[in-house]
Amino acid sequence: MRRAAILVIAAGLLGAAGVALAAAASHGGEPRLLASAAALSLAHAPALLGLASLSEKSRLLLPAGLLLALGTMLFAADLTLRATAGSALFPLSAPIGGFGMIAGWVVVAIAGLVMATRRG
């Protein structure tokens, strides 16, 4: 499977989850938590598509995208469970997911710096 396909699949899953979470936030449950999970999912889905389109330019973009995807999924899953079941996914799942997202964006920045310093 091409590197880009993994990120496109993750983008599709996050986009679908984001729309479903936004709908759930407007129809009940804990709207604040569900809306946050929706916003994170919908913000990162197009970012993953962008990384997929650039993934051939830098080997760092796949791990960056995977960190973003997994971090977002973990964070959103934790918020969703808190909103619907009243309990966390597992202890520290939201902070671990948040760290994954932050790390993913840092790796994106590093990839950009590496790309900018290449000759040719």
From TrEMBL:
Keywords: Membrane, Signal, Transmembrane, Transmembrane helix. The chain crosses the membrane at residues 32-53, 60-77, 89-116. The keyword Membrane applies. Pfam families: DUF423. InterPro entries: DUF423. Residues 1-22 form the signal peptide. This is DUF423 domain-containing protein. It comes from Georhizobium profundi.
